[in-house]
């Protein structure tokens, strides 16, 4: 019973992590494409807030709950799908950390542009490109982690 409850929370956490990341990326990318500085500033503010409220707790919970389930099932950490999952999660995290910094910086640049009724500086757009391209391996990694969550084979345990 404890395993099933933990597995449910782990899956819900991944859905929240994945959904918040994809939703935030979509809305920020669309706001940037609009060129409307006030809209861009408001969206950046909400993306940063969503990262703090939703993404950060799930980024912490995912590996902890995953390791807890591995412990409950008495699986070796060297199990290939476990190694792959954690490696992909670390890759996504290595991309996410600079993305968070970029989002906070872009939020500040956009708020400053609104306050001064000016256009966004070129550094904003350079950061936006980095933000986008860092999201590609992060997103791909998380899709693969979800695929591993679904397809793993644990003898004696129902999927």
Automatic annotation (TrEMBL):
Pfam families according to UniProt: DUF2269
Top-rank lineage group of the source organism: Bacteria
Keywords assigned: Membrane, Transmembrane, Transmembrane helix
Positions of transmembrane segments: 6-27, 48-69, 81-102, 130-150
Protein name (record): Integral membrane protein-like protein
The organism of origin for this protein: Accumulibacter regalis
Record lineage: Bacteria, Pseudomonadati, Pseudomonadota, Betaproteobacteria, Candidatus Accumulibacter
């Amino acid at each position: 019973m404890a395993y099933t409850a933990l597995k449910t929370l782990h899956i819900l956490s991944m859905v929240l992590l994945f959904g918040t990341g994809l939703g935030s990326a979509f809305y920020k990318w669309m706001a940037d494409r609009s060129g409307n500085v006030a809209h861009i500033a408001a969206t950046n503010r909400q993306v940063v807030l969503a990262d703090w409220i939703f993404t950060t707790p799930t980024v912490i919970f995912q590996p902890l709950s995953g390791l807890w389930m591995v412990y409950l099932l008495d699986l070796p950490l060297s199990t290939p799908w476990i190694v792959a999952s954690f490696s992909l999660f670390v890759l996504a995290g290595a991309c996410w950390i600079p993305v968070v910094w970029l989002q906070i910086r872009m939020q500040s640049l956009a708020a400053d542009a609104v306050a001064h009724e000016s256009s966004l500086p070129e550094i904003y757009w350079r950061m936006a490109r980095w933000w986008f391209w860092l999201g590609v391996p992060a997103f791909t990694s998380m899709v693969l982690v979800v695929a591993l969550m679904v397809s793993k084979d644990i003898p004696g345990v129902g999927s």
